Amino acid sequence: MANLPQSLSMNAPFGGPPSSAANPAGAQVNKERKLASAENLVLELSNPELRENALLELSKKRELFQDLAPLLWNSFGTIAALLQEIVSIYPVLSPPNLTPAQSNRVCNALALLQCVASHSETRMLFLNAHIPLYLYPFLNTNSKSRPFEYLRLTSLGVIGALVKVDDTEVISFLLSTEIIPLCLRTMEMGSELSKTVATFIVQKILLDDVGLDYICTTAERFFAVGRVLGNMVAALAEQQSTRLLKHIIRCYLRLSDNPRACDALRNCLPDMLKDATFSSCLREDPTTRRWLQQLLHNVGGNRVAAFQAGGGFDHMLVN
Questions:
Q1: How high is the pLDDT of residue 15?
Q2: Is residue 119 a contact partner of residue 69, using CB atoms and an 8 Å limit?
Q3: Quick one: 298 exposed, middle or buried, by C-beta within 10 A (0-12, 13-18, 19+)?
Q4: Phi-psi bin for 15: left (phi > 0), alpha (psi -120 to 50), beta?
Q5: Lowest mean pLDDT among 6-20, 42-56, 69-83, 143-157
Q6: How many CB atoms lie within 10 A of CB 11?
Q7: pLDDT digit string (tens) for 21-78?
Q8: Cα dihedral sign for 66, 68, 69, 71?
Q9: 76, 79, 80, 84 alpha-carbon torsion, rounded to 10°
Q10: What is the mean pLDDT of residues 80-97?
Q11: Which residues are within 8 A (CB) of 158 and not within 5 positions of it... i.e. 6 or more apart?
Q12: Is the pTM above the cut of 0.90?
């Protein structure tokens, strides 16, 4: 293993050791060949005539290489080429004229940016360059057609990769942008999968103390989040999704950690979370059942803490 190239180290194929494990020399040659292939594909990203195929091949193979992200970031002109792919789509967002081929191509570029956002060496470089802002126009679209939905989902995947690692600096950056309203928009009108990823992002923001304080600083922010969560619960009563419900309940539970928000939840927590509406949905999910029980316990407590914290949201709205 000490002889592996440092720029790109291969993960073992799924299901066990590589077939060439018995022949170290052959395995080394194979890895170096794949490394050279990846480096050539990255170079081809800077050539407009070769870029489309390079995007496709790299996006398909990105999971094979642990250190593809530093290679993408440090290769001359590569990030600029990926941003060029993103910006070129802006004119077809409104009016909505995005074709499936255009959507697939830009989503391949976004998949490579997700790789950069996920890697510990490039994550903060990615943020400091404010690259997430280039994705926000995709989250601000209204069309429910498949090309647009695929574009929203892949863009959310990049933001989801950023918040997956608990880092207050990442959360603080996102809160300085329009990420909360954009996620709330998707939570209202996206597909089930897009709603799930957007709710996960809001959940991860809330789980950071900076994020919880941000949402609960004003009544307007709290009730904006609470209204969308409530509407989603009502919709799930008609068409249930355990995966989505899990993230919604975790958001509510985290909000209940704030005294003023907990006090407000006594009046605005959906009744469907208090009765047996989702009993069958949560039967096989003991973790989410436990979260819901803790939420109901928190909301059912006394009101003293909220007023000790300076009054509830009703007091804030009056002023």
A1: 39
A2: yes
A3: middle
A4: left
A5: 6-20
A6: 9
A7: 456 666 666 666 666 788 999 999 999 999 999 999 999 988 887 789 999 999 999 9
A8: positive
A9: 140
A10: 97
A11: 110, 113, 114, 117, 132, 135
A12: no
**Contact in structure between 168 and 212 (CB atoms under 8 Å):** no
Give the residue carrying structure tokens 């975790």.
250
Structure tokens at 286: 């003991």
Region of residue 234 (left: phi > 0; alpha: psi -120 to 50; beta: else): alpha
**d(C-alpha 314, C-alpha 60), whole Å:** 52
- How far, in Å, CA of 145 to CA of 157, rounded? 18
Q: Report the alpha-carbon distance of residue 147 to residue 11 in Å, rounded.
A: 32
pLDDT tops 70 at residue 9: no
Q: Which neighbouring-strand residues pair with 10?
A: 65
Q: Are 206 and 198 in contact (CB under 8 A)?
A: no
DSSP conformational letter for 97: -
First-to-final CA distance of the chain: 65
Q: Number of C-alpha atoms within 13 angstroms, CB side, residue 127?
A: 21
DSSP 133-201: GGGHHHHT----SHHHHHHHHHHHHHHHHHHHS--HHHHHHHHTTTHHHHHHHHHHHS-HHHHHHHHHH
Band (pLDDT 50/70/90 cuts) for residue 5 is very low
65 has which bridge partners? 10
To the nearest 10°, report the CA torsion of 274, 280, 281, 286. 80
Q: How high is the pLDDT of residue 180?
A: 98
